[in-house]
Write a structure and sequence with these properties.
The complex is a heterodimer of chains A (about 525) and B (about 500). By secondary structure, chain A is mainly alpha-helical. Chain A has helices at about 1-5, 10-25, 30-55, 90-105, 115-135, 140-150, 150-160, 180-205, 215-220, 220-225, 230-245, 255-260, 265-290, 290-315, 320-340, 345-375, 390, 395-405, 415-425, 435-460, 470, 480-500, 500-520, and strands at about 65-75, 80-85, 165-170, 175. Chain B has about 500 residues and is mostly helical. Classes of the chains: A mainly alpha (about 525), B mainly alpha (about 500). The interface of A and B includes residues 144, 179 and 184 of A.
Chain lengths: ~525, ~500
């Protein structure tokens, strides 16, 4: 079919949201219904395309970049418009489109103040273009552009609709609103990382022969690049860029602030997709292009990953704010993903891929719930919450279910990522210090216990017990139809991935094993 | 000695010279309410001149006059086109601004077009004398234009500061040139190049040659407001009328860079060991000092002044990288600087046009006064985001590609000097984001302190200026190949 032979389909996935955003830009602000429908239809169209792509995709050759194209773009720099998907990017691409649709559905009657559906939807659509673009890009420059494009909408989302409570900035002793602090911190941290990532990309370019920015092209040159005396430095540059985005401890400090301050939908998109851009970068770019340097860095990554797991869990136990707790839980969960990646083994990378998808589904869901609860209670302070199950049974049960999924209950999506990451740490890629990874395994296993601990603790604080006097007489509306429409797909996915992980592995397995084979010779 | 003059090759300059006189004539002839006709004449003349440039491009044969001191080639034509584009946008910005002041319209356009003519001359200059004449023709009108708001003390201060430092820099440059002439006995760059290589090689003349090079660079350093020659910029930028500030920040700076490119790569091409470290240092310090000082600015124009110091530092990076690579990447470096200038031209002019349009709402130059602009003028606030984030280098706005080619020369030098400068530039790019974002934050995140009644109408010509810059920022950002074509065309200066 023509749509899939020359990259038209993938290009449309990136272009449609932009077109939708531009159309919205010219709509009068008053036509709220029309604006919402255009936004929703655009995102549904994109979702339809990604699902169609998933059906057209050839799973027997999931290591081959498919449905793409390669056209000259900046000829002076040998950079081309090269796009395509393999079994690793496919699940992320579908997830991005799905979460965008759900975010728009959820927003339908949940507009944060100052209410401005037009601007909000424009930003969501631009964000979608950036996210999908990052996952389909096969050229470093193209990847860099989309990687950066994502920042702008999120910056505005946090800055305009974010948390307006105030905080004191340490050192400067200045009082600012959380949204201002968080939006800037988010941007500056990521920009800092990506500036070094760009230097790394350029170093790859100038040391490749023939010079190219093409990711597959550079992977083919991996042996020659490994011989470079400063391959480690290049990897360090890429590492900075991706690690900030993941985020890995100790570069994570922007994350709790950004998540806590962001409006609900912003948090959801941030957790579900944006964090994955970092881990995806490791899998797509850093490891296959510089496998030897990756081996040198792997122990460091593993150590930082388990520190992240333990630190994230402990930090969760110290939170009073429900949303902040979920934010810190991301640090821990992404620690598992990074642990899987650091083993550089087939099992580990597969664990990372499914961990990314599962975290996107589950934590995205948790942020939806945290948002809906704070819309009703107008507080996220867990000391004041309680008895949610009594007050709002539907919402309460969904919260219980999602928390169970998040703590890695077998049979639900969260299980595979954690379990397989630990499994892979037992038997990392040949040449890596096995002892260290097995210690990481043990520490990570302790982390799973802590994870269960803080999530159950959160449930106990918010869901269980009798409502306190403060809420006893209140009559909160339970989850409404928009909320349920947005959530049910995620809940179904949580179960489906849990009992039938092949829905992800089926795509990723072949691609991952080819990647490992090529990088480390099997 | 007789010189043959190729009038066809000089057509762009000749047309502009006629335009200059035409502007004055119209000013004398028409009644007061029709004074804007002088602007029309100026704009028309510039378009004709641009057409002439296009013809010369298509013709492609080029010309060399006055013993090789005045050359029409792809490098000079590229820059002439850029100068005309910048001048055109500045003129569009000026129309409404000057009209509201109600005095001396004809003279204003006369001076502005004269200055543009000077920058065209500089583009073609391949000898010190022509270069100096061109540079003075660019600068002298600006002394007066900076003080155009006669009633405003700050405008007077701006003009005086610019005048004093302009004269000082001309003196330093002239002094350096006289040294070069003394050492080599030549004023044409090609001839100077050989002489300088010998002068540096000979231990007796080496110190004098070093002094000569450093003085010439310092002279241009004032023009491009690189640290430590940047002190005039913030005061002059703040006091001068906004369109003139835009011209200073873009065209006048670009003129300085034209001079620097030609002199450094052609006249001093063989002695990169001397100017390389100097420019490396100037780049690193300009970026850092410019950025750090910009962080604290409360006034948006002052902030842009320091930002332009920092941007100048970024543009110097390719020079240092070219020297660090022993000239191996010199063509790429020239191309990178030109790409940066071309993109900077549109995004910075856009930023000033935006300020001009927004000033009708803000009534003040304080960044704080931009609070809540997004509710009062959403469209304008979006444009503000476009220009300021482009300056910050956020894709897909054109600024990213400018930074990108700059980084690529630093890394392309493939040695520690280049790497270090690349890292310094990377850190600076992040710092810079902070102050550009402050404006965006004020416009979008802060609530207006008080309800200001504003039914401001943005004039048609200013709208056109904004539109031109916006389109350029998007097109060059999404199709950066265009920008690199411009750069590569100019890089033919170095042959090839």
């Amino acid at each position: 079919m023509d749509l899939w032979t020359n990259g038209a389909g993938l290009s449309l996935m990136v272009a449609l949201p932009v077109v939708g955003a531009v159309i919205l830009g010219f709509m009068p602000k008053k036509g709220e219904e029309a604006i919402k429908w255009i936004g929703l239809l655009t995102s549904l169209l994109v979702l339809g395309l990604t699902v169609a792509a998933a059906f057209v995709f050839d799973y027997d050759h999931s290591e081959v970049f498919q449905l793409g194209t390669n056209r000259p773009w900046i000829t002076a720099l040998n950079s081309s418009y090269e796009i395509g998907i393999d079994g690793i990017s496919l699940p992320m691409m579908v997830l991005s489109a799905l979460v965008t649709v759900l975010a728009i559905i959820y927003s339908w009657n949940h507009w944060e103040e100052p209410k401005n559906p037009k601007a909000f939807l424009i930003l969501i659509l631009l964000l979608e273009a950036g996210m999908i673009g990052t996952f389909v890009a096969l050229d470093l420059i193209l990847f860099f552009i989309f990687f950066e494009v994502v920042l702008l909408p999120m910056y505005f989302m946090i800055g305009i609709w974010g948390d307006k409570s105030e905080r004191t900035i340490p050192v400067f002793n200045k009082v600012v609103e959380n949204r201002l602090y968080a939006s800037l911190k988010f941007f500056v941290f990521t920009l800092f990382g990506s500036a070094f990532m760009l230097l790394g990309f350029l170093a790859l370019y100038f040391n490749s022969d023939p010079r190219t920015f093409s990711i597959p092209g550079l992977i083919d040159q991996a042996p020659a690049l490994a011989a470079l005396p400063f391959a480690g430095l290049i990897f360090a540059g890429l590492f900075l860029g991706f690690a900030v985005k993941v985020p890995m401890w100790p570069l994570h400090t922007w994350l709790p602030d950004a998540h806590t301050a962001a409006p609900t939908v912003g948090s959801v998109l941030l957790a579900a997709i944006l964090l994955k851009l970092g881990t995806y970068g490791f899998i797509r770019i850093a490891i296959p292009i510089l496998p030897e340097a990756a081996k040198d860095f792997a122990p460091l990554i593993a150590v930082l990953a388990v520190i992240g797991i333990i630190y994230g869990s402990l930090a969760c136990l110290a939170q009073t704010d429900m949303k902040r707790l979920i934010a810190f839980s991301s640090v821990g969960h992404m620690g598992f993903v990074m642990l899987g990646i650091s083993t550089l083994s087939e099992v580990g990378i597969n664990a990372a891929v499914i961990g990314m998808v599962a975290h996107g589904v589950i934590t995205g869901m948790l942020f939806f719930l945290a948002g809906s609860m704070s819309h009703r209670y107008h507080t996220r302070d867990m000391a004041r919450l309680g008895g949610n199950l009594v007050l709002m049974p539907k919402l309460g049960w969904i919260l219980s279910f999602t928390a169970m999924a998040s703590l890695g209950l077998p049979g639900l999506a969260g299980f595979w990522g954690e379990f397989m990451a630990l499994l892979s740490a037992f038997d990392p890629q040949a040449g890596l210090p096995v002892g260290l990874f097995r210690v990481a395994l043990v520490v990570g296993a302790v982390g799973t216990v802590l994870t269960a601990g803080y999530l159950l603790w959160m449930l106990q604080k918010t869901n269980l017990g009798e409502p306190s006097e403060e809420w006893a007489d209140s009559n909160f509306p339970d989850a409404d139809k928009y909320e349920l429409t947005a959530w049910i797909p995620l809940l179904i996915l949580t179960v489906v991935i849990g009992v039938y992980p092949k829905i992800v592995f089926g795509a990723s397995e072949g691609a991952v094993s080819a990647l490992i084979e090529k990088a480390f010779g099997g | 000695m007789t010189y043959s003059i190729d009038y066809a090759a000089l057509a762009p300059e000749i047309i502009l010279a006629i335009t200059v006189m035409g502007v004055l004539t119209v000013d004398v002839l028409v009644p007061r309410r029709l004074k804007y006709w002088s602007a029309v004449v100026a704009l028309g003349g510039m378009l004709l001149s641009a057409a002439a440039i296009l013809m010369l491009f298509l013709d492609g044969s080029g010309a060399s006059m006055f013993d090789g001191s005045y050359v029409v080639d792809n490098f000079s034509l590229t820059f002439k086109a850029l100068f005309l584009a910048a001048g055109y946008v500045v003129l569009l910005m000026s129309v409404g601004y000057i009209e509201s002041d109600r005095y001396y319209q004809g003279e204003y356009y006369f001076l502005l077009v004269s200055s543009i003519l000077g920058s065209l001359v500089m583009s073609s200059a391949r000898g010190f004398i022509v270069m100096f004449i061109g540079l003075e023709l660019v600068t002298a009108p600006l002394f007066m234009l900076a003080g155009w708001r006669k009633g405003d003390k700050r405008s007077n201060e701006a003009a005086l500061k610019y005048f004093l430092l302009g004269v000082l820099s001309a003196a330093i440059l002239g002094w350096g040139m006289s040294f070069v002439f003394g050492l080599t006995g030549e004023v044409r760059f090609d001839a100077v190049a050989q002489g300088m290589a010998q002068a540096i090689g000979d231990s007796a003349t080496r110190p004098a040659a070093i002094v000569a090079i450093l003085f010439v660079i310092a002279g241009f350093g004032f023009k491009i407001s690189a640290v430590p020659f940047h002190f005039w910029a913030p005061d002059t930028y703040e006091g001068a009328p906004t369109p003139v500030t835009a011209y200073l920040a873009v065209s006048s700076k670009a003129a300085g860079f034209v001079g620097l490119i030609v002199v450094v790569y052609r006249a001093f091409g063989a002695v990169g060991e001397i100017w390389g470290p100097a420019l490396w240092l100037m780049a690193a310090v300009s970026m850092t000092v410019g950025n750090l000082t910009a962080l604290n600015q409360k006034n948006i124009i002052r902030m842009l002044a320091y930002s332009s110091v920092a941007q100048g530092g970024f543009m110097l990076v390719p020079f240092a990288a070219a020297a660090a690579s022993d000239g191996a990447i010199a063509p790429a470096a020239v191309s990178a600087t030109v790409v940066y200038l071309a993109i900077y031209l549109f995004m910075n002019l856009g930023a000033f046009a935006f300020i001009l349009a927004a000033s009708k709402h803000t009534k003040s130059g304080d960044i704080e006064s931009y609070a809540g602009l997004s509710t009062r003028a959403p469209g304008l606030a979006v444009l503000g985001v476009v220009f300021f984030f482009s300056l910050a280098g956020i894709p897909p706005l054109a600024g990213w590609f400018a930074k990108f080619v700059m980084f690529s020369t630093a890394i392309g030098a493939k040695n520690t000097w280049g790497w270090t400068l690349g890292v310094i530039a990377a850190v600076n790019a992040v710092i810079a984001f902070y102050y550009y974002a402050r404006v965006v934050k004020a416009m979008w995140f802060d609530a207006a302190s008080s309800e200001v009644e504003s039914e401001a109408v943005v004039g048609g010509s200013l709208k056109l200026a904004l539109a031109l810059c916006t389109v350029a920022v998007f097109v060059l950002g999404v199709l950066p190949g265009l920008a690199s074509t411009i750069g590569d065309t100019a890089a033919q200066l170095l042959g090839g």
